[in-house]
Amino acid sequence: MDKLTNMKAFTRVVNHGSFSEAARELRLSRSAVSKYVIDLEIELGVQLLNRTTQSAAPTEVGMRYYERCLAILAEIEDAETSLSQFQVEARGLLRVNAPMSFGTMFLGRLIGQFMARHPDLQIQLVLSDQQLDTVQEGFDVTIRLTDSPPPNLVTHEIASAPRIICASPAYLEERGIPQHPRDLRDHAGLHYGYLETGAQWKLTGKDGDHWVPVSWCLCSNNGEVLRDIAVEGRGIALLPSFIVDSCLRDGTLREVLSDYHAPEMSIHAMFPPTRYLPYKLRVFIDFLMKSLSDGFNLPAGAMPEQGRSEHP
């Protein structure tokens, strides 16, 4: 028995003083409304209505129950209204996980703009270069730069991020300019520390794919460090283009092996599978995608974590 349906039928009968009028409002037959009330009386073990052929009036106990039913049904309606607002308005708490560099130098500015549009939304931003578990840590969304999103999460590609091999002019003058991927074996590599492939770079050109073992002199899980040390002339780095664009323009870094490219990576928004995507999450992802639709127009030095991220 659906007690809520029975309660709704009972309150409508009391409101109208008639089974027929209650049935008309509920778009049910008179017999169906009568059955709902009878089922309720049987379950409660009391008589709720005094009936005549033309009308129905609550008994004393029925009036008490009627008042409680009104309160209960009002609470349910309020809860449903509140829930529906969450589906059409950005409200409540949004928990976001992102890499440290991307958060401090880029995502913060975007979230500030997003908050201005959705003042009723609370955002908890957790920045970490560790591979945190989106589900276990309770994040609504995790943002990662990767070329291999995890299969257990729903992913939305926000923007692409091609990578460039580069070094400082001073380094290239001292060590020479590599002409082929195999030449990288004789150079000092600035290596990102989370790549599944180990200390190898995959480069593709007209002559096919090349897996190059990197003789690294520095291994870091932070792209800013790799870029800055490359500028200091300590080695060759493989970095997303938007990280090094300003350095390439001002000449502090130079691109090498431009005829070869590494697998292109993308910024992904990842979240656990769900039947109903919360409105707050949907508008946040849409905002990021629209904001980055023309690529990463970052200020100098602004860049996210780079390298393969195998877990969110």
Automatic annotation (TrEMBL):
<dbReference type="InterPro" id="IPR000847">
    <property type="entry name" value="LysR_HTH_N"/>
</dbReference>
<keyword id="KW-0804">Transcription</keyword>
<dbReference type="InterPro" id="IPR036388">
    <property type="entry name" value="WH-like_DNA-bd_sf"/>
</dbReference>
<dbReference type="Pfam" id="PF00126">
    <property type="entry name" value="HTH_1"/>
</dbReference>
<comment type="similarity">
    <text>Belongs to the LysR transcriptional regulatory family.</text>
</comment>
<feature type="domain" description="HTH lysR-type">
    <location>
        <begin position="1"/>
        <end position="59"/>
    </location>
</feature>
<keyword id="KW-0805">Transcription regulation</keyword>
<dbReference type="Pfam" id="PF03466">
    <property type="entry name" value="LysR_substrate"/>
</dbReference>
<dbReference type="InterPro" id="IPR005119">
    <property type="entry name" value="LysR_subst-bd"/>
</dbReference>
<keyword id="KW-0238">DNA-binding</keyword>
<protein>
    <submittedName>
        <fullName>LysR family transcriptional regulator</fullName>
    </submittedName>
</protein>
<dbReference type="InterPro" id="IPR036390">
    <property type="entry name" value="WH_DNA-bd_sf"/>
</dbReference>
<dbReference type="InterPro" id="IPR058163">
    <property type="entry name" value="LysR-type_TF_proteobact-type"/>
</dbReference>
